[in-house]
């Protein structure tokens, strides 16, 4: 069986296990993204996972997991630290009526994202090259998104400063985490409070194959104070 066939077969099985359905053409478009990822992956160090089945489950299905638990967003979304497009591209393919911004600080990864958006195609996606600390202060980005999603970017205490400034009041920040998610949540309690977030829930789920995951759901309950996000580097050096 070819890698593309293995990928689609594993994806189909995972979607069934989660009770998810995708709009017409979305599976084929995920297959195109997977093909581009396979072609560009080594050159641009896009992902350490290479097996077709593993990529389907650990990247694509995991990216789609919130749709098995939460109602779809009512407004635009931003993927902070999008990398190769996870979770933003799978979510955008599943929600073609929702606009997604893929924000990434590494230029070569943005080149990949823009190529993928053009080739798939993904008219509801825009890849933006820049740092969260800078765009989090820009009108049209700050406090403008229904969902702010981030996966494999940073510890939550640091990540909160990159993400919460983008969430509009009543919007959600969704942090994809592994087994330490709740521990990170405890460590980030002050940061979330300062930045205007309030923990809504922690959803525990398992991917096919048994990997345990946690989705940390943070509700934006008050505006992020003007000093945040701080200049680049400070959230990592001196997390809240």
Q: Percent helix among the residues?
A: 40-55%
CATH superfamily: Vaccinia Virus protein VP39
CATH architecture annotation name = 3-Layer(aba) Sandwich
Could you tell me the mean pLDDT? 91
In what range is the share of β-strand residues?
A: 15-25%
Largest sheet: 7 strands, mixed
Order of helices and strands: HHHEHEHEHEHEHHEEH
Compute the number of strand runs.
Answer: 7
Count of DSSP-assigned helices: 10
What name is given to the CATH topology? Rossmann fold
* Distance between the amino and carboxyl termini: 50 Å
Rg estimate, integer Å: 17 Å
Biggest sheet strand order reads 3-2-1-4-5-7-6
Q: Looking at the structure, what is the overall shape? A: globular
CATH C-level class is: Alpha Beta
Q: What oligomeric assembly is this protein in?
A: single chain
């Amino acid at each position: 069986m070819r890698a593309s066939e293995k990928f689609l077969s594993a994806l189909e099985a995972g979607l069934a296990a989660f009770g998810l359905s995708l709009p017409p053409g979305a599976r084929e478009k995920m297959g195109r993204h997977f093909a581009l990822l396979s072609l560009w992956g080594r050159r641009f160090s896009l992902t350490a996972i290479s097996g077709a089945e593993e990529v389907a489950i650990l990247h694509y299905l995991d990216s789609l997991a919130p749709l098995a638990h939460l109602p779809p967003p009512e407004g635009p979304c931003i993927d902070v630290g999008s990398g190769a497009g996870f979770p933003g591209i799978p979510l955008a393919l599943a929600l073609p009526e929702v606009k997604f911004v893929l924000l990434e600080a590494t230029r070569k990864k943005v080149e990949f994202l823009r190529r993928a958006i053009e080739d798939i195609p993904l008219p509801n996606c825009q890849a933006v090259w820049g740092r969260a600390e800078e765009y989090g202060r820009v009108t049209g980005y700050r406090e403008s998104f229904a969902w702010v999603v981030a996966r494999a970017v940073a510890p939550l205490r640091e990540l909160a400063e990159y993400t919460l400034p983008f969430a509009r009041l009543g919007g959600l920040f969704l942090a994809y985490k592994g087994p330490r998610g709740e521990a990170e949540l405890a460590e980030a309690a002050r940061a979330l409070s300062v930045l205007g977030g309030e923990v809504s829930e922690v959803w525990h789920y398992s991917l096919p194959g048994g990997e345990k995951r946690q989705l940390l759901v943070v509700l934006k309950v008050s505006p992020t104070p003007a000093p945040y996000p701080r200049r680049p580097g400070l959230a990592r050096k001196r997390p809240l």
